[in-house]
Amino acid sequence: MKRAYTDEHAAAGVHAPLPEIETWPNQYADYEIEIVMPEFTSVCPKTALPDFGKIVLRYVPDQLCLELKSYKMYLLAYRDLGIFQENVVNRVLRDIVKAANPISATVVGDFSARGGLTTLVTASFQRAKRTPRGKR
After folding, report:
1. Catalytic residue among 30, 44, 62, 95
2. In terms of pTM, does the model score above 0.85?
3. Is 74 in contact with 18 (CB distance < 8 Å)?
4. pLDDT averaged per 10 residues, the chain (length 136)
5. Which residues on neighbouring strands pair with residue 106, listed in sequence order?
6. How many CB atoms lie within 10 A of CB 83?
7. What are the C-alpha distances in Å from 127 to residues 29, 62, 71, 130?
8. Does the active-site annotation cover 51?
9. Which of 94-103 are b and which e, b meaning 16 or more Cβ less than 10 Å from the residue's Cβ?
């Protein structure tokens, strides 16, 4: 029996080269940034049909903030990339953490209906708290 979806479909786009997300030095502490891309598009790796949705990033910066134009160009690069919606959200989170090392970050992908179903995917990162020396 042939499977409709292959391992290649599942891994599509996960390691594809994308533009670098640039950063700049943060000047403040203890605040949250929310960035919304209301017209996100990518491509289904199996059907090659477009996926449309909204990507919301909320993060608490530490030493670095994301430079918005480079983040926008990064997200626009998904336009022609075959990748599952779930992988989009997790890949964006992974790349944000790698670029800026935030205290915390959450990426939400709110994808438009396809075949009568909508998809809402949420992935979060929370930096591990460090225990001071001599404390447990």
Report:
1. 44
2. yes
3. yes
4. 77 93 97 98 93 98 98 98 96 98 98 93 90 55
5. 58, 124
6. 20
7. 15, 10, 21, 9
8. yes
9. bbbbebbebb
